[in-house]
């Protein structure tokens, strides 16, 4: 989850809103599962293969959607995922179809090993993104978030960067998928390509704080905690758990649009400077970006 | 990753709630991961009603020991279902599991169940993937017919009612139910001597079946066998009616005998043939050895209606019966999973939905199978007329004419 | 066969166009992609279903009622909730409306359980048979409703003061403000109309498909596809996109083995390819007729 | 001195976020007067326009029309009260036709009643527009779009017309064509506040002018007095640069 949210946020940092993250997630999951079942390769190799598949899918998406921005890109990613889901449903000979596919019992690993692998994976993906953001890439991405054509003038090749960013995000999301698959040992098109995963990653990021490094991590913990609490304690009436979940989500967005991390940073800042600053720095920095991004549409005919 | 986090959080939570609620020592806890929201909420809700009511029959205890169902909302999401099983078995350490119901959820939790293997009353899942994966497990008790039970009974029944040699077309959906059913439907109908003139795939949730119906019309089948979800059968039945295709016999599984399907399908339900272990409005006498638990069907239905203000369904009656079987075994064995397994194996009582006795399935895939006996009925003038087996027959089959 | 194919495509296309109409309007003007649009359709369907079941009101008669109720609900919802996120990033808007959808969906479960419903007025089972082809009456009526609503919206956008103002806002919000247009009011108005159309769509659907609290999302994804195909913000684009998608799916279902299963996938692949060639859609991206 | 002016700004402060663009700007426009606001790129001219129209809310100061403060009124209310802007870069609605653009100009309820009369008036003022009624605005030339933007602003029957850089991107010939109409409009009793970088053209039609530099008014006076003033040159080229530029 942390991995997925980090991956999503990384992509969003360039203004690419993905609603199809489960495409990478699912593709990674299927790649590792099917390879293991057919050729009994090792866990490590399967992770490697899945990351490659995810990265390839990410790159393909970026190249294919070259000209799309904002909402159009988001809708294209939905289409990408749906097409993959239908393919997985309709090719039962390969994927097991809607009845799903189980990981070979012999290939299963201990829970402890997977826990450690997950932690290593999470740390590695956070570090990778952190390091990448330290490089020149960061400025290119900032520039693209604000204005792609301006970025182009600065000598940034948007397509190249987009492809790179999507590939990294795709690989990281695939990693998350693999870990989850090894953990649950079962996969079906519904699980692999559900929009729920993509949205969950977003919710985590938003709740934690978008475009920040720490945000997705905080968000992932909060969202899972919340979902667990509602699922376990609200079983009296059918539907309540998700109802409450929705309510919390809506109030978060309305009252804490900068996320928990944003709010914390603001509070800390205002405390540090003596509560004198009127405009909230993080929110503002963000909203000015948004104003410029909001009204954009693809070139009209 | 996600699941792991979930498990940690859930563990912490479960500890805090469980500590106050009950000492594991004097309470028997039964984990009940059910679809209490999301797409399959109707399944989960029925499962929960059944379990609750069974517990009420036992006054909340067996042999003076308190029993409780730990309900978990798996939100019709396989990931959440896995997380729930993990939380229940790894953290809360329940020894018994009741649920989930939908095939997809069921399939997803199998690997997670394998970690600890609590005694599992599996009241749900018609797909044979389940049978292949866990059917042979000694701690797994399946209390719901598999898809092939439907086709086995239906093909045999139809053969005895309308005779074999008829031309049929099979419509199956691309979901788990359709996909796993198809080979069995093919096999059993062939064995019963029917000619399969065509097989058509439909998409789950589709709005338009006209292209399929146009193809079927040209095949001129004498019977149409559908392997689709209930909601799709509403749309499909309506469109068949609208298209005015002259097919004498329309055949489906359980859906036809569900009250919600009947209401939704309206006039389009006329003539449909389905099957179930429980047909609304039928009578079944009280169990001889345990009338306290399994009274006559009408008495039980009255109790159910008084409690929930809704009409019971096959799932309600089945879940009640399945949960009761578990409680009966607990009554005899005490809180020891191995003994409970032995007692479950020994059970032999009449229930609301047929004989409560665990036997091997005909395929041999599942060692503990109950409630696989089904009755065939046809919707005639808004009523279910039982056609098969002959001993419970209440009327004759009618061919549709358009 | 070909004729039947064309009729089936047109009827399905009409249904699809209806799904997308409201969405296109609200996205075109407010630039908010409403993820709760499917739930609005779902509630409209329930509204019509209950009106039919409890009071015997024909689902067709429910359409105007649903238009009014939907309008009111949409207006209030926009004014008190969604408006707050007007200047927020797309992302927040998506999640906000997604959250609203989740709330509505589960509120519907609480209110009416997850049981399947479908209204069955007398004509819903009727069909017109002409030689080799047949036309289901219920769907023909839906098609008519789609055509009528599309025409009304078109007229509204091109011939009325506020319709023109909506198009102006879609093209240049700041300049629209300079014209003395209360943009926030027009946003609420447009959003309310889009929800009204959604509710009416639900009412039209109530007799031809199965209603559950969960139908919304599937419908929404379809509507997205149509919107992008037609060009977000264009009423005629929505109609064209709907009919095109209907034709594509029906053709695949007719001629490809296991076609019904592939139809949707083919549609999404087509959409994806189409986006690459013509990201602005068939008609273009700004709101016009 | 004289009776209170039609339009008046007192001590206006405005900006974006934390950056203050305008500080302590004061100016006034009398009934029927043409006043220019001159200054180089980045001086804050457009920001002033935004603050007057209400697209940007002021941090401090007062904006008065007819002596009544309008500082807290929302943008759409100000149009109704009689302030209309022909914005920088025209900002016509590209996918609406000329007539629809003009009709939108009179969206404000007060002006809607006299719509036919105003349309005729504007077609008289800009015959080009009359010829292209059904043309999509986005497909017209820059000069035509500028005429449309001015015409559109006039449709609301403003008492104060704000013109932001009407010569931007136009050839001298077309600029002249556009500028020719400014005195005609003023002659109808409409006050005009004209923002320009093209000081030459602006001063030629103005009665008075203000010079804005780094968000402050650095000079004010009659148009002819300012034409060759050092203050104006300084404002445009900056103190140090003015020497180097010589």
UniProtKB/TrEMBL annotation, chain A:
It comes from the Bacteria. It is a multi-pass membrane protein. Keywords: Cell membrane, Membrane, Transmembrane, Transmembrane helix. InterPro entries: ABC_transp_permease, LivM-like. The keyword Transmembrane helix applies. Pfam families: BPD_transp_2. One of its GO terms (molecular function) is branched-chain amino acid transmembrane transporter activity. It is found in: Cell membrane. The chain crosses the membrane at residues 7-27, 39-64, 71-91, 113-133, 159-179, 199-223, 243-264. GO terms for cellular component: plasma membrane. This is Branched-chain amino acid transport system permease protein. It comes from Chelatococcus asaccharovorans.
UniProtKB/TrEMBL annotation, chain B:
Pfam families: Peripla_BP_6. The keyword Signal applies. SUPFAM superfamilies: Periplasmic binding protein-like I (SSF53822). Residues 1-24 form the signal peptide. Residues 27-369 form the Leucine-binding protein domain. Belongs to the leucine-binding protein family. This is Amino acid/amide ABC transporter substrate-binding protein (HAAT family).
TrEMBL record, chain C:
Pfam families: BPD_transp_2 (PF02653). The chain crosses the membrane at residues 12-33, 40-57, 63-82, 94-113, 133-157, 185-205, 237-255, 261-277. InterPro entries: ABC_transp_permease, BCAA_transport_permease. GO terms for cellular component: plasma membrane. GO terms for biological process: amino acid transport. CDD domains: TM_PBP1_LivH_like. Its main location: membrane. Keywords: Amino-acid transport, Cell membrane, Membrane, Transmembrane, Transmembrane helix, Transport. It is a multi-pass membrane protein. It is found in: Cell membrane. One of its GO terms (molecular function) is transmembrane transporter activity. Belongs to the binding-protein-dependent transport system permease family. LivHM subfamily. This is Amino acid/amide ABC transporter membrane protein 1 (HAAT family). It comes from Chelatococcus asaccharovorans.
Automatic annotation (TrEMBL), chain D:
Keywords: Amino-acid transport, ATP-binding, Nucleotide-binding, Transport. One of its GO terms (biological process) is L-amino acid transport. Pfam families: ABC_tran (PF00005). InterPro entries: AAA+_ATPase, ABC_transporter-like_ATP-bd, ABC_transporter-like_CS, BCAA_Transport_ATP-bd_LivF, P-loop_NTPase. SUPFAM superfamilies: P-loop containing nucleoside triphosphate hydrolases (SSF52540). GO terms for molecular function: ATP binding; ATP hydrolysis activity; branched-chain amino acid transmembrane transporter activity. This is Amino acid/amide ABC transporter ATP-binding protein 2 (HAAT family).
């Amino acid at each position: 989850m942390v991995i997925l949210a980090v991956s999503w946020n990384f992509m969003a940092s360039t203004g690419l809103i993905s609603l199809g993250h489960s495409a990478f997630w699912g593709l990674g999951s299927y790649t590792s599962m099917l390879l293991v079942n057919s050729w009994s390769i090792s866990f490590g190799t399967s992770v490697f293969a899945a990351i490659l598949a995810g990265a390839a899918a990410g790159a393909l998406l970026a190249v294919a959607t070259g000209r799309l921005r904002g909402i159009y890109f988001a809708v294209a990613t939905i289409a990408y995922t749906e097409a993959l889901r239908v393919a997985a449903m309709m090719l039962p000979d390969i994927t097991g179809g809607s009845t799903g596919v189980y990981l070979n019992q012999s290939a299963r690993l201990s829970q402890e090993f997977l826990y450690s692998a997950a932690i290593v994976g999470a740390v590695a993906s956070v570090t990778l993104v952190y390091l990448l953001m330290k490089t020149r890439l960061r400025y290119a991405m900032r520039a693209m978030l604000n204005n792609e054509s301006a970025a182009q003038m600065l000598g940034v090749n948007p397509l190249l960067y987009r492809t790179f960013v999507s590939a990294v995000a795709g690989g990281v999301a695939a990693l998350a998928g693999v870990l989850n698959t090894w953990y649950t040992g079962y996969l079906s098109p519904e699980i692999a390509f559900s929009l729920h995963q993509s949205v969950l990653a977003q919710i985590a990021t938003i709740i934690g704080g978008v475009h920040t490094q720490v945000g997705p991590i905080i968000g992932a913990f909060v969202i899972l905690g919340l979902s667990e609490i509602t699922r376990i304690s609200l079983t009296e009436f059918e539907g309540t758990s998700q109802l409450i979940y929705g309510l919390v989500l809506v109030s978060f967005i309305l009252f804490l649009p900068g996320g928990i991390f944003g709010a914390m940073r603001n509070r800390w800042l205002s405390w540090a400077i003596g509560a004198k600053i009127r405009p909230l720095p993080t929110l503002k920095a963000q909203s000015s970006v948004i104003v410029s991004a909001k009204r954009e549409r693809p070139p009209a005919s | 990753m996600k699941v792991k986090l979930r498990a940690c959080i859930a563990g912490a939570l479960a500890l805090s709630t469980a500590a106050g609620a009950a000492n594991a020592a004097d309470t028997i806890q039964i984990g009940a991961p059910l679809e209490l929201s999301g797409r399959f909420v109707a399944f989960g809700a029925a499962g929960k009603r059944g379990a609750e009511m069974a517990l009420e029959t036992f006054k909340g205890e067996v042999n003076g020991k308190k029993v409780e169902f730990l309900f978990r909302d798996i939100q019709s999401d396989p990931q959440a279902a896995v997380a729930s099983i993990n939380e229940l078995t790894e953290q809360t350490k329940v020894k018994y599991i009741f649920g989930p119901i939908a095939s997809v959820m069921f399939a997803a939790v199998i690997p997670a169940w394998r970690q600890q293997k609590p005694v599992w009353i599996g009241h749900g899942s018609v797909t044979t993937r389940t049978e292949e994966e866990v059917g042979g497990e000694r701690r797994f008790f399946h209390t719901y017919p598999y898809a092939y039970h439907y086709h086995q009974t239906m093909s045999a029944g139809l053969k005895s009612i309308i005779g074999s040699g008829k031309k049929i077309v099979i419509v199956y959906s691309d979901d788990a139910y359709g996909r796993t059913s198809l080979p069995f439907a093919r096999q059993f109908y062939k064995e019963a001597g029917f000619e399969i003139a065509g097989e058509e795939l439909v998409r789950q949730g589709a709005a338009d079946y006209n292209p399929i119906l146009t193809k079927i019309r040209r095949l001129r089948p004498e019977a149409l066998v559908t392997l689709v979800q209930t909601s799709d059968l509403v749309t499909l039945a309506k469109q068949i009616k609208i298209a005015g295709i002259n097919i004498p016999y329309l055949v489906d599984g359980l859906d036809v005998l569900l009250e919600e399907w009947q209401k939704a399908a309206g006039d389009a339900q006329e003539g449909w043939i389905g099957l179930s272990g429980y047909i609304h409005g039928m009578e079944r006498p009280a169990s001889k050895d345990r009338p306290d638990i399994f009274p006559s069907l009408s008495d039980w239905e009255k109790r159910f209606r008084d409690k929930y203000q809704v009409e019971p369904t096959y799932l309600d009656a089945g879940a009640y019966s399945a949960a009761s079987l578990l409680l009966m075994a607990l009554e005899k064995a005490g809180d020891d999973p191995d003994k409970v397994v032995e007692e479950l194996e020994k059970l032999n009582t009449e229930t609301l939905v047929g004989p409560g006795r665990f036997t091997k399935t005909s395929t041999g895939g599942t060692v503990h199978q109950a409630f696989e006996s089904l009755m065939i009925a046809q919707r005639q003038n808004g009523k279910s007329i039982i056609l098969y087996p002959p001993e419970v027959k209440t009327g004759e089959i009618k061919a549709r004419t358009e | 066969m070909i004729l039947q194919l064309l009729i089936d495509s047109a009827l399905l296309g009409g249904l699809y166009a209806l799904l997308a109409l409201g969405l296109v309007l609200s996205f075109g003007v407010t630039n908010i992609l409403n993820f709760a649009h499917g739930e609005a359709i779902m509630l409209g369907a329930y509204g019509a279903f209950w009106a039919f079941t409890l009071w015997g009101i024909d689902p067709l008669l429910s359409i105007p009622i649903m238009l009014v109720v939907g309008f009111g609900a949409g207006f209030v919802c926009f004014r008190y909730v969604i408006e707050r996120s007007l200047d927020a990033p797309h992302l927040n808007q998506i999640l906000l409306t997604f959250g609203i959808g989740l709330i509505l969906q589960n509120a519907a479960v609480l209110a009416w359980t997850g049981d399947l419903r479908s209204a069955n007025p007398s004509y819903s089972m009727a069909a017109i048979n002409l030689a080799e082809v047949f036309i289901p009456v219920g769907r023909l009526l839906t098609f008519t409703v789609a055509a009528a609503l599309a025409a009304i919206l078109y007229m509204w956008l091109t011939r009325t003061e506020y319709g023109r103002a909506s198009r102006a806002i879609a093209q240049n919000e700041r300049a629209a403000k300079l014209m003395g247009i209360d943009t926030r009011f027009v946003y609420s108005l447009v959003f309310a109309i889009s929800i009204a159309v959604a509710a009416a769509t639900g009412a039209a659907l109530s007799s031809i498909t199965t209603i559950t609290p969960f139908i919304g999302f599937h419908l929404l994804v379809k509507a997205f596809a149509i919107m992008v195909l037609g060009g977000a913000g264009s009423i005629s684009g929505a109609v064209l996109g709907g009919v095109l998608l209907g034709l594509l799916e029906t053709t695949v279902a007719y001629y490809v083995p296991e076609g019904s299963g592939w139809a949707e996938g083919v549609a999404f692949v087509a959409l994806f390819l189409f986006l690459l060639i013509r990201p602005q859609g068939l008609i273009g991206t700004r709101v016009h007729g | 001195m004289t009776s209170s002016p039609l339009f008046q700004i007192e001590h206006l402060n405005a900006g974006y976020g934390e950056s203050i663009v305008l500080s302590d700007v004061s100016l006034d426009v009398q009934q029927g007067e043409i006043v220019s606001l001159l200054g180089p790129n980045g001086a804050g001219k457009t920001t002033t326009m935004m603050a007057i129209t209400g697209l940007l809310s002021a941090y401090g100061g007062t904006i008065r029309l007819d002596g009544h403060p309008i500082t807290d009124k929302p943008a759409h209310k100000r149009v109704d009260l009689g302030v209309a802007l022909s914005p920088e870069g025209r900002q016509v609605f590209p996918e609406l036709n000329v007539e629809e653009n003009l009709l939108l100009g009179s969206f404000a309820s007060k002006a809607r009643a006299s719509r036919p009369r105003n349309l005729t008036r504007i077609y008289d003022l800009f015959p080009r527009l009359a010829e292209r009624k059904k043309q999509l605005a986005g497909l017209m030339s820059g000069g035509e779009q500028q005429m449309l933007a001015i015409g559109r602003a006039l449709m609301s029957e403003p008492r104060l017309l704000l013109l932001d850089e009407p010569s931007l991107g136009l050839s001298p010939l077309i600029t002249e064509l556009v500028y020719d109409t400014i005195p005609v409009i003023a002659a109808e009793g409409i006050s005009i506040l004209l923002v320009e970088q093209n000081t030459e053209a602006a001063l030629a039609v103005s009665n008075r002018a203000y010079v804005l530099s780094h968000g402050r008014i650095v000079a004010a006076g009659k148009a002819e007095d300012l034409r060759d003033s050092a203050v104006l040159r300084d404002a445009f080229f900056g103190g140090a640069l003015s020497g180097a530029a010589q």
